[in-house]
Amino acid sequence: MGLVARVVEAAGIPTVLVSTGRDLTEQVLPPRTLFVNFPMGNNFGAPSDLDQQRRILYRALTLIEEIDRPGAIVELDEQWPQSFTDKVERTLLAS
Amino acid sequence: MEPVRYVDLLNQRYRQQGFPPYKWTINTETPLTAPSKPLAESTVSMLTSGGVSHCSMPAWNPDARNDFRLDGVDRDATGDDFAVNDSYYDTEDATNDVNCVFPVDRLRELALDGRVGAVAPRLWSGFMGRIYSRTRVVEESAPALVEELRRDEVDLFLLAPA
């Protein structure tokens, strides 16, 4: 997806990627990234938390106007309520 | 908590499966295009790779490898009309509320509020599962998507990988 963002951006359409994998994003280097330290698949937060989903989506879109350094990664200032390392490892290592 | 170290985890997974070390794409430069108009006047589209399918389309293969299908989703589709099939992440939350990974309802609300100019005619789901042909992504699939975005006069594009 970072590769797709780079192609779209290079074609003249500004992009922002909402990432849950900071190390993956640092490697591929999309043009602009909002890093959300939430579980993969919860890029916009928790189910039925409409305010949080709207907040994260809007934050990501406003980054397009704010970021003027290629490859910048801005971290969302919100925490997931519990550790999700075990959940991620279970899913990824089983796939 | 510290960010999950996905690269280490995936390297471990590939080693367990007996695959040679994965050759990660590591870029040191990236393009940047300045927006041509304010967000409140911009037409926005978005793409998820989270195995999200509209009910009018077939479900994704949750174990997909090199699946280059790309679905255009009507901007009026509501969050209740999607299925999520992807074995590479925990899909429970996205299944209960697709807006966790593909915020179709929230994007429409931002446009109704006037904070976003408009939602583009089509939103996108694709590039899901494992894709091993990076050349095909960069030289064929992504440029084809660019053509569709131009057709829809998209000003800003958001990507939500999963």
What does this structure look like?
The complex is a heterodimer of chains A (95) and B (162). Chain A has 95 residues and is α/β, with parallel strands linked by helices. Helix content of chain A is 45%, strand content 14%. Chain A has a three-stranded parallel beta sheet, sandwiched between helices. Chain A is globular, with a radius of gyration of 14 Å. Chain B has one domain (38-160). Chain B is 27% helix and 18% strand. Chain B contains four helices and seven strands; from the N terminus they run αββββααββαβ. Chain B has helices at residues 6-16, 92-96, 104-113, 134-151, and strands spanning 43-48, 52-54, 70-74, 82-84, 118-119, 122-126, 156-160. In chain B, strands 1, 3, 5, 6 and 7 form a five-stranded mixed beta sheet that branches. The interface between A and B is large, with 70 and 72 residues. β1 (15-19) of chain A pairs parallel with β7 of chain B, so a sheet runs across the interface.
Mean pLDDT of chain B: 95
Number of contiguous helices of chain B: 4
Strand order of the largest sheet of chain A: 1-2-3
How many structural domains can be distinguished in the coordinates of chain B?
1
**Helix/strand-derived class of chain A?**
alpha/beta
Please state roughly what percent of the residues of chain A sit in beta strands, choosing from under 5%, 5-15%, 15-25%, 25-35%, 35-45% or over 45%.
Answer: 5-15%
Main β-sheet description of chain A: 3 strands, parallel
Number of strands of chain B: 7
Largest sheet of chain B: 5 strands, mixed
Question: How many domains would you count in the coordinates of chain A?
Answer: 1
- The best one-word shape of chain A is globular
Low-confidence stretches of chain A: none
Which regions of chain B have little confidence, pLDDT < 50, spanning 5+ residues?
none
Topology as H/E string of chain B?
A: HEEEEHHEEHE
Mean pLDDT of chain A: 95
The helix content of chain B, as a percent range, equals 25-40%
Total count of strands of chain A:
3
